[in-house]
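Two folds, back to back.
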Amino acid sequence: MAQQTILGIGNALVDILTQIPDDHILEQLNLPKGTMQHVDAERSLAVGEAMQQYGSAMAAGGSTANTMSGIAKLGLTVGYIGKVSDDERGRFFEEAMRQTHVQPFMMKTPTPTGCAQAIISKDGERTFATYLGAALELSGDDIKPELLDGWDIFYVEGYLIYNRPLLDTVLPMAKAKGMTIAMDMASFNIVEQNRDYMRALARDYIDILFANQDEARVFSGKDDPEEALHDMASLCNIAIVKVGAKGSYVQRGDEVVKVGPIPAQVIDTTGAGDIWASGFMAGLIQGKPLQQCATMGAIMAANIIEVIGAKMDDQRWEKIFKTLEEL
């Protein structure tokens, strides 16, 4: 049996990563710590200027792009759909995708490529000021049904909920082609603002649903992560609730597994949920048991939180490959 392939769709963003010595600058910029705020081009520029004093690094980002890059690094066949401009950031993004062996299907627009100012506090918590730019213009008209041909799994980020016409086009399209659809809830404020719509999507289209503890609580209305997990699993095939330092819960039908975390030194939590999903999905594609899939996710996340940003160097990947082999 041929190994399954996975195609992701998301907001193509370039991450501008900045470590700050204390959180005063967040208060000055009116950015609540730990949240993701949408900003316009002008505000994005102002945040960028305020961050210049600390020095920054650039990386291809966006939730789905991070997950797809991680899966591709594990040697699987991966594609990515997004929208950028033919500007410096857009070219950087597309090249970065290719370098991680992800096949990019990039739509183009004159609007500048989106960027996420990822501001990293001393404790590793990150705060995002996100200018969607070109990413916001990705529409159902851009996605021709044949673009999905030959792919088995369709992976969607919850951030696309802000682009409902796109989801209302592509999810039925993927379903009609018999694809398995996976979605990460992305951010608790998104779930809070769009709970009914998100539950309807889960019921009608989603096969695999990822959430962290806060997202699961808001989505289900249940404070206990296991109760939230059962609620999610009643709507889809596989439900995942990540509970940070306590590990994760996964449910498929009556099967429930709990996996503890892998000890790690937290430097930056950027991309931890995205890369956890990479490990889990890679395991699932390879037909591994749920326990092992979740452990693969935990291994990946433990490594990403020890580095700045959502990308890891070759040495770190060698460590991951070695750990996964031992698994």
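---
second:
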Amino acid sequence: MSEQEQAAAATDVPDAEPAESEQPQGFGAPTLAAALEALVLIADEPVPVTALAEVTNTPVAVVETELNRLAEQYTEQGRGFALRQSGGGWRLYTRDTCADAVTRWVKDGQRARLSQAAMETLAIIAYKQPITRARIASVRGVNVDGVVRTLLARGLVAEVGVEPTSQASLYSTTELFLERMGIADLESLPDIAPLLPDIDDAVDLFDSMNA
């Protein structure tokens, strides 16, 4: 092949596709609003704006503006939930105007028996409170997000603050728990050893791994 033919062939070679890491990933959803709604919906704790910005590949200022717009939109539309900033992040909450309906739902749920998973999780919280979901999961060996939500809805546990190091929510039992157990205080709980013999070792191992 002559030099002229080689030069002509070279011009026909298409430009190389940019590396996958160089291609923008976008919001990960049809719109930024949709992405933010999905993320705060699945979150069990307030999500920081910086985390939402990182996941959606969007500047923090743009994300914050969109969150405020969504919050105003939900209020104007009279939705049963509100998007609010709390605990250093954003989260969905039920509105006070829907408190009666929520209360009825929770009270009706009290009639149903707790699952084995819920009972185990409740026991861990009762004996090691205040405790984070991560520590509970380390003891049970499975994800406990759904179970903790059930216990919160039943009013048996409540968020009582955040852990200083991880900023994760801490959970403790409530007065309703004591009432259901028929005891006056936590000191009246039976010995933990026969119920969860490995709980202390499991929590200590978790703490040492995260020290």
